[in-house]
Every structure is written in structure tokens, then in C-alpha cells.
Amino acid sequence: MAHVRKIAHPPRRDGSVKTSWRATWTGADGKRQSKNFPRKKEADAWLIEVGAGRVGGSSSMTVADLADQHIRWFDGLVKAGKRAAVSRDGYHYFRSLHLAADPGFANRRLSDLRAPDCQTFLDDLFTRTRSSDLCVRGRRTLVTWFKFAMRKGWLNANPAQPCMVEREAAARDGEPSFELPCKDTLKALLIAAAEGDFPQRDTAVVRLLLFGGFRISELLGLADDAVAIRSKGLTVKVRERLDRRYKTLDVPKTAKSRRDVPLGEAAALAVRAWRLARGPARAFAHRDGQLQTRRVAGRLFPDTRSGEGVWGYNEFMNECWIPLMRRAGLVQMLPDSKGKNRPVLAFGPHMLRHVAVSLWLDQRPQPKVKKVQDLIGHATLQMTMDLYGHLWTDEDEDDAIAQASERLMA
Fold this sequence. Notes:
With 410 residues, the chain is α+β, with helices and mostly antiparallel strands. It contains 16 helices and twelve strands.
């Protein structure tokens, strides 16, 4: 086992350090090795650099073996209702596609694994895919796998921890990662919502997305009793979300996603009109992600064919969003790779989540970043600032600061 311990030395007349930190580990040849460092941080970093991965009984385990072990363990958590199936699928997808594409790294033994090996894998992954976001997720996956190995006693250090992935230049420079539609376009969307075959439903959908900033999974997973009409608007309690692939109702992915969002009177009127047109919400039997059937409350937007159950993402796009965008004149027919004309949407429903934040920030005074984080349901403040920091502008305040600075020197 690798470890770091403090070594006391006799005092010296030249004033040299009286203590040091000794890193001890087992090399790939099975021999114990050690090295002294003046600081514990340097000793820990050295253990990560050399891998320190050999543990008795696991010297033949490869990275691919470790990935399979972790996925099987994670699948048990999914079946127990403690983790989301989409996360398990993400690990499996990365294992079967990207890890398998590099057999040299996949078949490397944990006992021989070093930090440079992980960095080379990530660099090659970027060369193949040209995607920094994928490499960031790949590094996160490797760190998770190796932490699992450390808990199991198969590794003594995490060789992926010191690895680094360069972000896109635009993200580093604070450039916006999306272009918001203009207000005339949004008004056209609201008008088009009232002109279709289901005007009450479409109007309620657009107003909730436009002014509430919900994720599509949260909108489709809303229970009818989670939307409470108030005297001056309504409050939406986000407590469930709909898994796009499995159509199962799950809890929000993070604690911050579990939130209460207030909306105005127009949204309340739209929801009230939709409830009158829809009729009473009916409870239904639902088979959840743990393959257990339970009785759940009716949804605010149930399946349009049966009037109960859940409204799937594909059905939502085909029955609501695409026709809505056509009526608003926001669909272009463009040829695909085979020369056939295909509908291309100006933007997807997730864009209205960004619009909601921009509308909040257009107000004076602007809401604080912590309030926006709470309303939008981001896990961290950094995530909110990375996405919307470029929208936090106040020219009047900037001018006031500039003028005040000059007055101080006058």
C-alpha cells in the first residue's frame, strides 16, 4: 500500500528543515520504494505521478475491467432507486465507444497505470473527436472510475486527478455560447401558440418555459398538483422530472434542481384555461426506473392520446413544438446529406430557458446571481456565471463607477 508519513530529523546547525515527508509505494516490479519531500503536498503529488497503483491481488486488473466493475455496481444503484439510469448509460456509452477505441489504454493494467497515460488518452480523445466538452466529461469519468477502485482497494491513488483538458477559447474568454432570439420572434411564438389545434395547451407550455426557465424534463414531469394558482400568479414546485429515454418519473438530478418558481398572472391564466380544456387530472399506474409499478398523481401535461400517463419528449416535439414553430415561421426546409429537404428549427425548447434568465436580468434592479441560480436550478454559482455572466451588464452603474473614480483624483 502507498502512503505518506512525517519523518522527524535531528536538528541541524545550518537551520535546515527538521522534518520531511516520506512517500512509500510498491513499484511495478513488486519492490517497495520511497522518496523524501520537504512538504506533504509534494509527496502526495509524487504518488499520483508514479501511479502507486499496485495492490495485492489486483495487479492483473485493466482499465476496461475496472469500467465494467463500476458499471455493474452503478446498475445496482439504479435498480435500487439511488441513481439515474441516464448516468449509467453515459458510463456505458463512454466505455463501449471511446474507451474501446483506444485498446492500448483500455488493456493497461492498473498496477502499471500512470498519470501521463491518462493524459495521453485524453489528448488522443480530443484528436479523434475535436470536442473539449467530451474530453472534460471523459476526465470526469476516469476520475470517478479510479475513485471507485480506491474505495475497493484496487488503487492507492487516482492517476486521472492531475490530468487537465483545455476548454474552448470562447468559453475561456467569456463569450456567449448561444444567441438569444429577439423579442419580436418570441412574441410571434406566443401568437402562434394561440392559433393551433390546442391553443390552451400550447399557450401554457410556452408561458411556463418562457417565464419559468424550466428544463423540458421538468415541464413534462410536472404533477398537476405541483402547480398552485395564487392571487397574483402561480408557484411551480419542481419535484420530479421525466427521463427522456425511459419515460420514467425520477427525482431532480441535484438538490438545487428541487425548487419553487413563481410566475405571473398571465401564466396563471394560461394554466387555468388549459386545465378547463383538459379536464381533471387522472392518477395512473406508472412503471418507474426500478421496474416497480406505483400509483402516481396526474400530470399537468398528460399524454395527448389517452389523457393520462406521461407525455414523452418525442411526442412533445412532434405534437407541440414543431407545429408551433411552423406556425410562427421559425422552420426552414434545408437539404440534408442525401439531398432531401428536412425541417430545421430556428431553436429548440431549451432556448426558452435561456430567454427566461435574460428577461429576469432585463429588470432594474437586476436580481442577484444567487437568486438566478435558485430560480434556474443550477448546482453551482459557477455554472450560472459561465452561462449567463455576459448578460450581467449595467451601463448606468459602469458609468457611475467611472465618473466616481475621476472625481476621487479631481
